[in-house]
């Protein structure tokens, strides 16, 4: 689950990580009052207005309707309202959005953390995530923080450092000091960075996150270390341990079809292919996607219907898959262990009839309990539904009916 910047900063702050303070608003009328409150709390005289969307590159992005950037400095209270008006409610296009961009429903009015001595500030990059190859957490960091970090990774990868943490022992003090040293810090700044790293890692572990990315981490002119931005992804599988985190989900930022599937209890991920998949079990789903690719097609989605595949559930799955205009056919590949294959076959037939006009071929492979009976039901349905027995049969059907 992805979070907005202001939400990620709230988690960071709860673990003692120093952050760039700010106030989030969702209407123009609240902008000036929020800026006044921020000024009273922090003493800031300039403000940074930041679009809150689930996409990176906001500082380089452009608001379609006004030409504004997604991150803008307002030099004084008098500029705040106009600056917010140029972003809020508009569509921001970045390198991580499509051409339409994402609508900005909220903006963060933040303090100018670089004042009063901009030239004495330094920007760093830092992230914490799992290295799946080693099974260890890793801290990635660089002296070259800021908006051009992608170019740093591409052109000067030697400027990106990595520190792996053994989860059995956790982050050690010498590792925090090593990170601060590699960032070229000394004295008070080094001590503050060491504390910052330790607290950032504690937030990552404590929140059951998949990733914490801070870009930039700012060293101020007086050697404070502050998280100026935050990009946070939480592990959906661990949300049960954090009841309040589910309330942070912003469904307006997610794929509407995926939101609908989640509400229906279906595990669905939208992809870019032309063959829809309906499978029970994640492992079988991955195998089915491989079959589709080997047959010359491309999977249009990942959809796991789980252990129940009755007519209502199958109909919901069909409807969700068919929302994708790129789908040229559907492959149903279900193993009947918990649920009998003949029941699934009847569910497919009933779902097909209830939906009505389905103008793409459906290939059904059912193996397990009562598989023979299931094949007879499919073959005798009189519908645009084709049965398959083996994985090779399914692949051949995909090639014949969809790819060719």
Distance between the termini: 38 Å
Query: If helices are DSSP runs of H or I spanning 4 or more residues, what is the number of helices?
Result: 12
- What do we call the CATH topology of the largest domain? Rossmann fold
Mean pLDDT equals: 92
Please give the CATH architecture of the largest domain: 3-Layer(aba) Sandwich
Report the uncertain regions: none
Structural class: alpha+beta
What is the radius of gyration?
26 Å
EC number: 6.2.1.5
Catalytic activity: GTP + succinate + CoA = succinyl-CoA + GDP + phosphate; succinate + ATP + CoA = succinyl-CoA + ADP + phosphate
Organism: Parvicella tangerina
Protein name: Succinate--CoA ligase [ADP-forming] subunit beta
Secondary structure topology:
Blueprint lengths: L4 H10 L7 E4 L5 H12 L4 E5 L10 E2 L7 E4 L2 H9 L5 E3 L8 E2 L3 E5 L10 E10 L4 E7 L6 H7 L4 E6 L7 H10 L4 H20 L2 E11 L5 E3 L3 E4 L21 H8 L3 E4 L4 E5 L2 H13 L6 E4 L6 H12 L6 E8 L4 H15 L6 E7 L2 H9 L5 E4 L2 H13 L1
Keywords: ATP-binding, Ligase, Magnesium, Metal-binding, Nucleotide-binding, Tricarboxylic acid cycle
Organism: Parvicella tangerina
Cofactor: Mg(2+)
């Amino acid at each position: 689950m992805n979070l907005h910047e202001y939400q990620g900063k709230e988690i960071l702050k709860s673990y003692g990580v120093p952050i760039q303070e700010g106030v989030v608003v969702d209407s123009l009328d609240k902008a000036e009052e929020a800026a006044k409150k921020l000024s009273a709390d922090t003493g800031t005289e300039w403000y940074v207005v930041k679009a809150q969307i689930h996409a990176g590159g906001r500082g380089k992005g452009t608001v379609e309707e006004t030409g504004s950037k997604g991150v803008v400095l307002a030099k004084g209270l008098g500029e705040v309202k106009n600056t917010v008006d140029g972003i809020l409610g508009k569509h921001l296009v970045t390198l991580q959005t499509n051409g339409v961009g994402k609508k900005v429903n909220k903006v963060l009015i933040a303090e100018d953390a670089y004042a009063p001595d901009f030239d004495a500030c330094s920007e760093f990059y830092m992230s914490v995530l799992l290295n799946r190859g080693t099974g260890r957490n890793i801290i990635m960091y660089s002296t070259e923080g800021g908006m051009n970090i992608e170019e740093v990774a591409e052109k000067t990868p030697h400027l990106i450092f990595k520190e792996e943490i053994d989860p059995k022992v956790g982050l050690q003090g010498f590792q925090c000091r090593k990170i601060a040293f590699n960032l070229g810090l000394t004295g008070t700044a080094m001590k503050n960075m060491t504390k910052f790293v330790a607290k950032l890692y504690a937030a990552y572990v404590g929140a059951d996150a998949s990733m914490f990315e801070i870009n930039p981490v700012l060293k101020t002119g007086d050697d404070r270390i502050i998280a100026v931005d935050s990009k946070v992804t939480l592990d959906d599988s661990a949300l049960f341990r954090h009841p309040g985190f589910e309330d942070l989900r912003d469904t307006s930022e997610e794929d509407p079809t995926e939101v609908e599937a989640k509400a229906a209890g279906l595990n669905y991920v939208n992809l870019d292919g032309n063959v829809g998949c309906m499978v029970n079990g994640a492992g079988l789903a991955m195998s089915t996607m491989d079959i589709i690719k080997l047959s010359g097609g491309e999977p249009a989605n990942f959809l796991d219907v789980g252990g129940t595949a009755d007519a209502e559930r199958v109909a919901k799955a069909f409807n969700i898959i068919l929302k994708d205009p790129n789908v040229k056919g559907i492959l149903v590949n279900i193993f009947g262990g918990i649920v009998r294959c003949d029941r699934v076959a009847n569910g497919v037939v009933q779902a097909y009839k209830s939906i009505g006009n389905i103008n793409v071929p459906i290939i059904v492979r059912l193996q397990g309990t009562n598989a023979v009976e299931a094949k007879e039901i499919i073959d005798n349905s009189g519908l645009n539904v084709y049965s398959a027995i083996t994985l090779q049969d399914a692949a051949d059907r995909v090639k014949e009916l969809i790819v060719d």
